[in-house]
Amino acid sequence: HVIVFHANSSHEGRLNMVVSCVLTYLGCMDNAREAAERVLQLRNKTWQGLQMMPSHLRYISYFSDMLLHQMMRIPNSKPLRLVRVIMYPFPDCSEEPAVFEIVRDGQVVWQSPELSASGQDFGAFKVVLVNYSLSGDVVFACKTTPAGEPARLLFRYAFHAGFTSPAPIRIAANKLDMPPQGEIEDDFFMDLVFDTPGAADNDVDEDALDGSPLQAFRLIGRRGGHVTMKELEELEHKEAMRALDREKMEKRAESRGLAEEAREKALARLQRKGVSMEAK
Prior knowledge:
Layout: H1 12-25, H2 32-42, H3 54-68, E1 80-88, E2 98-104, E3 107-111, E4 126-134, E5 137-144, E6 152-160, E7 169-172, E8 189-195, H4 213-222, H5 229-279
Antiparallel strand pairs: 1-4, 1-8, 2-3, 2-5, 5-6, 7-8
Helix pairs in contact: 1-2, 1-3
């Protein structure tokens, strides 16, 4: 039996992604990434030659993870509320206005005000306040919008919200889909700062914080700071150890208190015995 795959566009990378996932599902390969490399080898092409973009590899990883862990549903079914996006250094737009868009099902569902990167703004931080809930397949697109001309894509980032951690995420330039003649610097990054849906951006009472690393970490995240999953795990571990130390100290204090109480009772008994002996 022969199965023929055909794409309605000239984008071979998308077709290779589907074929790789099918080969993995049929058990021909251990994972979709190896399947993709095998297809490239058979077709005598490279990742770049087959137009395999970072987003294709990201979805290949999603598929492999679901098969490996025998997932029956998306890991996180709850929406993520994107609070803000931080970009640095913002690319040179040649004095053309740029916008940051959120796209779902081929439709722009959110768009930022105009962004610029000319003169003193070139290379600066760009903080875009979003406050929009994300679910399912999502595409971030940053493009210029010159008057009277077609929009020009600067970069794109496609992902599925169900496979994304709510912790702040830093996306490096090599994880973005970009045109062949891209204008993104190698040290460019984009930070995504999330919050739980429906929570206000300032719903943390700073006076109520107990100074623990994790609470301070989360507060920084709400303000637009950057953290990684490793840092989050380390801070959570430190906070857990601190809580364990506090519990041990409380138990030791309780034990000392009980010991002191027992000592006082013993002294009281001895004193009573001493008084009765003198009376006799």
